[in-house]
Amino acid sequence: MVKTYIFGHKSPDTDSITSSLVMTNLEKVLGNEDAVACRLGSLNKETEYVLNYLDIEAPELIEKVEDEANVILVDHNSPAESVDNIENAKILKVVDHHKIAFETSYPLFVRAEPVGCTETILFKLYKENGVEVTKEIASLMLSAIVSDTLLLKSPTTTEDDIKAVKELAEIAEIDYETYGLDMLKAGTDLSSFSIEEILDLDAKQIDFKDVKSIVNQVNTASIPEVMEMKADLEAGMTKIIEEQGLDLFMLLITDIVNSNSQVIALGKDAALVEKAYNVKLEDNTVLLEGVVSRKKQVVPIMTESA
Amino acid sequence: MVKTYIFGHKSPDTDSITSSLVMTNLEKVLGNEDAVACRLGSLNKETEYVLNYLDIEAPELIEKVEDEANVILVDHNSPAESVDNIENAKILKVVDHHKIAFETSYPLFVRAEPVGCTETILFKLYKENGVEVTKEIASLMLSAIVSDTLLLKSPTTTEDDIKAVKELAEIAEIDYETYGLDMLKAGTDLSSFSIEEILDLDAKQIDFKDVKSIVNQVNTASIPEVMEMKADLEAGMTKIIEEQGLDLFMLLITDIVNSNSQVIALGKDAALVEKAYNVKLEDNTVLLEGVVSRKKQVVPIMTESA
Fold first, then answer.
1. Distance, in angstroms, between B120 CA and closest chain A CA?
2. Chain A residues touching residue B209 (CB < 8 angstroms)
3. A73 forms bridges with which residues in the sheet?
4. Which residues of A touch B99 (CB under 8 A)?
């Protein structure tokens, strides 16, 4: 029996976890009985809320896959965000909504679309393949879209996402606005995390051209509350910069209610933030108004300025 | 008016030309009125036969696109096979059946599948979008699938390709076996080409790890007939090797009736062919039995052996 491991990115968010579950179900229904839903890290509070609410078990935690294992990547495609030994695996499929950052030596199935959430694409795949979207599957899909688009308010939101949420809310019989805000708020609870954990929760390694960076995003309903930890956060960021030889560590503290982000930027290339957004860091921090999307409002702008 | 240039790879084959036309029609029907079908090189004899037979005009020949132009890539994704200034363009979509060999700094629409022909994927896109496959569009699709799969006999052929050809033959009202063989044979007519042109007809720049190579494929109904030009072909290949600093020039002379390929290999790494296929080159040439697919039976094997 050759297993097919299906997983989202490291530091998994709700889209990565639910897409693993939803894609695994699709594969199984279509005849791939050896598909296994996996994850590459701990659940965040938001995803815990979702799985508890829906009473669904989390995907299996894995650190590696066997050599030449079959894998399906959801919600990511970059090797840097994937399982450590991805170069030894055979990638069967990719379903994703991020920029393309992988190469293969063989043709494969890739379904990428510039939409707000992987689940929006998976919803289409279910329809195209005539596979039933059960109440449970619809609830998982809906949760991820609401999460990735911050209740359809992020600039990453597309018509497809909005249409999907409306259809899915009917199937799931969920008032997505009430449920979604509760879910997002659950995700902002940092009380049980150490500084190290907060700095790892949604950290992505991204190189802005030659600038080796980590961009971490923490959602909150109150920026001042998170900024009370600023000194400790900076100490933790400095440690990671030294350990990993980074040029930049950018922490986005995103206000999900008012749609702004307070940035803390450290590292020898912290001034790249000033250049990219035409702002002045004071005491390593600045408020970026209207910025909520790392993918749409940070990566392209920082890359262009680097 | 911002145009969207839609094109296949350099040294275009029937799939690249017809996919450009078929994708452009799809875009137009779906509301992108500024889509323009383009091509990056001369038509080969096979494609000329197809367009003549169907009385359809060839896509517009282009060498460059404007800076920041919108482009849609069909039947390729590698920058090396694309328009020269692809790095200045905005790639909106990719529809392809090759290995993934491009990167972006932004999310985009990618539809790749490991099937025999881009048109097999486009046929699905038409269906998914509820767009009518006219007799003309079906004929174009059918021609490309028959071409890429050598009448469904190449090992690249999948169930999806077979299914598509059967459905398309009905819509197109074409006996695909008779039409297909005539089309393939038309493509083997080299009489009007100079040696330089033959060596450029379907040449792909491929690096097998560090081995900088060109792999060119010429279809024929008679290998001995092509081998009569061996001395001239070798002289031309040697010239290109020197001009481009290649490590290997591999010319596949593929017998489309009997499904074999005679290889001529030149360059300092010509022995890679011997290693990859466990054969001995004699006078720079060897018959590779059953080898007809560059993508499936050359690229992965040569890459692994390099």
1. 13
2. none
3. A7, A94
4. 103-108
Q: Which two tokens stand for residue A280?
A: 């002045």
Q: Which residues pair with B285 in a beta bridge?
A: B264, B282
Q: Note which residues in 203-262 of chain B have CB less than 8 A from chain A.
A: none
Instruction: Report the distance separating Cα B90 and Cα B108, nearest Å.
Output: 10
Residue B33, chain A, CB below 8 Å: the answer is no
Quote the distance between the C-alpha of residue B216 and its chain's center: 11
Contact B212, B248 (CB under 8 A): yes
Asked if A106's CB is within 8 angstroms of B300's CB, the reply is yes
Average pLDDT over residues B263-275: 97
Neighboring chain B residues of A301 at a CB cutoff of 8 Å: none
Q: What is the pLDDT of residue A69?
A: 93
Q: CA angle, A237 as apex, A235 and A239 as ends, to 5°? A: 70
In our burial notation (b when 16+ CB lie closer than 10 A, e otherwise), range B224-256 reads eebeeebeebbebbeebbeeeebbbbbbbbbbb
pTM reported for the whole predicted model: 0.84
In chain A, where does DSSP find H-type helix? 14-29, 45-54, 118-128, 135-148, 159-172, 176-187, 195-198, 223-227, 230-244, 271-277, 294-297, 299-305
Between helix B176-187 and helix B45-54 the angle, nearest 10°, is: 140
Does the structure's ipTM exceed the value 0.95? no
Q: How far is residue A69's CA from residue A66's CA, in Å, rounded to a whole number?
A: 5
CA distance A104 to chain B (A): 5
- Whether residue A129 lies within 8 A of chain B, CB to CB, comes out as no
DSSP H or E run through B54: helix B45-54
Q: Which pLDDT tens digit goes with each residue over A33-43? A: 999 999 999 99
B267: pLDDT strictly greater than 80: yes
Q: Which residue of chain B is at minimal alpha-carbon distance from A78?
A: B103
Residue owning tokens 């965000």: A81
> What is d(CA A252, CA A154) in angstroms, rounded to the nearest whole number?
15
Mean pLDDT of chain A: 95
